[in-house]
Amino acid sequence: MAIGAPCYIHGYSEDEAVRLADQARTLADLLHHDTRYASGSLVLEAGCGTGAQTREIAGRCPGISLVSVDLSAASLRGAKARGLATDLVRGEIAALPFRDESFDHVFVCFVLEHLADPEGALVALRRLLRTGGTITLIEGDHGSCYYHPATPAAASAWGALVSAQQAIGGDPLIGRRLYPLVTGAGFADVAVSLRQVYADESLPGVQDGFVQRTIVPMVEGVREPNAALGLVDSATFEQGLADLRATGGPGGTFCYTFFRATGVKRG
Ligand SMILES: C[S@@+](CC[C@H](N)C(=O)[O-])C[C@H]1O[C@@H](n2cnc3c(N)ncnc32)[C@H](O)[C@@H]1O
């Protein structure tokens, strides 16, 4: 895929950078409690965006060196402006400018879902790992989402999110495919674990950080693609957004599952 290939549905606005930061903060322990790289390791982060997950990894793994890459120059500038101190490199995941076997570990979070050829990207990343090095991947799966109250309009708006991403070649249901993708790319010892987020009003921090600040803005972000593709009429879409907001308020519940996969490069 060429640099700038139009697979990235969420865009590069300041609102999206804030959403990614809120998401990273809210999910940090759930996603990363078992992510540890030994001091002295050289870690490649592919698809760093504005560095929301980079900060979590760097904070949990003292003494590592991180090289963070993204195809968006604007995101890399945003990462720098937010004080990210890691090496930042612009590049396309499938064609990064590094020698074979350069890295001890590769980390990828919320990126494969946007690629037209995720297995090809994993093969390319495997080339950059030393033998014995590991890859860690974290992805969502929009088919894993359920909530209360479950209204038809909320389902329509959520469906528009899925369809809009599929329409430009992404896979918003990629979580369930991680195991076959990672094994298919040649990694060994592949292990997948599920990370479930659940929010109700006894968990106001999760309702606010995940439902109101992560999920609702993500759906809101496809308002224009939804209209351009003629997926859901705008009144239903707006009602669906309001209904999704209500799932993160009094009496509401929301549940979503992330997938985390690890694999090792053997010979
Ligand atoms: C949802 S953002 C995730 C950013 C970050 N990992 C996080 O979770 O906050 C996806 C990022 O992947 C980048 N990206 C998408 N396709 C890419 C590609 N082919 N090569 C490099 N970066 C890519 C986008 O530019 C975007 O910054």
Description:
The structure is a single chain. The chain has helices at residues 14-32, 52-60, 73-81, 118-128, 152-167, 178-184, 204-220, 223-229, 234-247; strands at 42-46, 65-70, 87-90, 103-109, 129-139, 146-148, 188-199, 253-264. With 267 residues, it is an alpha/beta fold. The chain has one domain: Rossmann fold, CATH 3.40.50.150. Strands 1, 2, 3, 4, 5, 6, 7 and 8 form an eight-stranded mixed beta sheet that branches. Helix 2 links the parallel strand 1 (42-46) and strand 2 (65-70). The chain is globular. S-adenosylmethionine (SAM) is lined by residues 1, 8, 10, 20, 24, 47-49, 52-53, 70-72, 75, 92-93, 109-111, 114-115.
* Highest-level CATH class: Alpha Beta
Bound molecules: S-adenosylmethionine
Helix content: 40-55%
DSSP helical segment count: 9
Q: Please, how many domains? A: 1
| Classification by helices and strands | alpha/beta
Fourth-tier CATH superfamily name: Vaccinia Virus protein VP39
Stretches where pLDDT falls below 50 for ≥5 residues?
Answer: 1-6
Q: What is the typical, i.e. mean, pLDDT?
A: 95
Distance between the termini: 27 Å
Number of beta strands: 8
Order of helices and strands: HEHEHEEHEEHHEHHHE
Fill in the keyword field for this structure:
267 residues, eight-stranded mixed beta sheet, alpha/beta, Rossmann fold, disordered N terminus, binds S-adenosylmethionine, 8 strands
